[in-house]
Amino acid sequence: MSSDTHAHHPHDHAHAHPHPTLPDEEERLTYHQTMEVALRELLIGKGIFTADELRRAIETMDARTPALGARIVARAWVDPAYKARLLADGAAAARELGIEMDATHLLVVENRPGLHNLVVCTLCSCYPRMVLGLPPDWYKSRAYRSRAVREPRAVLREFGTVLPDDVEVRVHDSTADMRYLVLPERPAGTEGWSEERLAALVTRDSMIGVTRPTLA
Amino acid sequence: MSEAAPARFAPGQRVKVRRADVPGHLRTPWYIRGHVGTIERLCGAFANPEELAYNRPGRPAQPLYRVRFRQRDIWPDYHGTPQDTIEIEIYQHWLEPA
After folding, report:
1. What is the assigned CATH class of domain A66-208?
2. CA pair distance A63, A80, nearest whole angstrom
3. Distance in Å, alpha carbon of A34 to nearest chain B alpha carbon
4. Is A174 a catalytic residue?
């Protein structure tokens, strides 16, 4: 801000150095943001739910993080019987660990030598929120959604995951009622590690399938 | 789920996705229509989302399958190895025997 501007603009402090300003007004609402506000106000106005119930639901969802999924993966790595139950019925196995799943149908897909799984939702942004929390922005982007099915190996390379040709890449398009969680391979060199220590290796991206857990 | 349409397909069976162009809320992506794949598993029966989207009950519930396709069959210029696959959930009324 120049001193010339200061001369025309009353200022309640005397220093003259420039400082950045933030706009007072946020950008105009988009069409869909306006629709969301209108729908929310109507639902609250008609007594379908209260503003506090809505706030609480958002707070509960925001509290979910990939740490939930990481606990599931770490347990599967140390307990073969749990892993078998997890692959048979993902939601029931998550509930065993005290994770609330509501009506989610969770399919857990296992990486193994020769097979790498990758999850996408080409139609919208279906995501296993109950065990990973909210999806990252790139997961919802048109670029990821279209390219993950069309050129998955190129997408994986951009995430730093280079797979040899003898590994099958299996893409899971989450089009309907199932939600998908990738069970990554346990990194070599972690023998004897505690579940807590193992869980710290399991990242969100490795449970979507764009990366693989490493010791680095 | 008492009112569910009976399941017509079994794991391992070859199926073709209908090449239909119908208006409305659909869960069958364009890129897979007309292609032939293999039933991987039956996921259960679910209210038809094409009906639910318009506040109708969506009954009888439709069997929902995981269908596995070879990437090379879907994208003729696919850059990847021949064993790469894609799996998609498809409702029974979009499938026919192949």
Report:
1. alpha beta
2. 29
3. 21
4. no
CB B11 within 8 A of CB B42: yes
Say how many domains are in chain B.
Answer: 1
Report the residue of A125, A173, A180 to disrupt the B interface, i.e. the one with the largest count of B CBs within 10 Å: A173
Residues of chain A with CATH 3.90.330.10: 66-208
Tell me the residues of chain A between 137 and 166 that have a Cβ less than 8 Å away from chain B: 149-154, 165-166
Main-chain phi, psi angles of B46, to 5 degrees: -135, 145
Strand pairing class (B14-17; B36-46): antiparallel
Q: B41-90, pLDDT tens digit by residue?
A: 999 999 999 999 999 999 999 999 999 999 999 999 998 899 999 999 99
Who's near A171: CB < 8 A, 6+ residues apart? A117, A118, A119, A120, A148, A149, A152, B71, B84, B85, B86, B87
| B6 found inside a domain | no
A164-216 pLDDT, tens per residue?
999 999 999 998 899 999 999 999 999 999 999 999 999 999 999 999 999 87
What pTM, to 2 d.p., does this model score? 0.87
Chain A: closest CA distance from residue B80 (Å): 7
For the stretch A119-143, pLDDT in tens is: 999 998 899 999 999 999 999 999 9
Look up the domain containing B77 and give its range.
14-97
CATH value at residue B63: 2.30.30.50
Find which of B89, B92, B95 to mutate to test the A interface (most A CBs within 10 Å of its CB): B89
Residue B1 lies in a domain: no
ipTM of the complex: 0.95
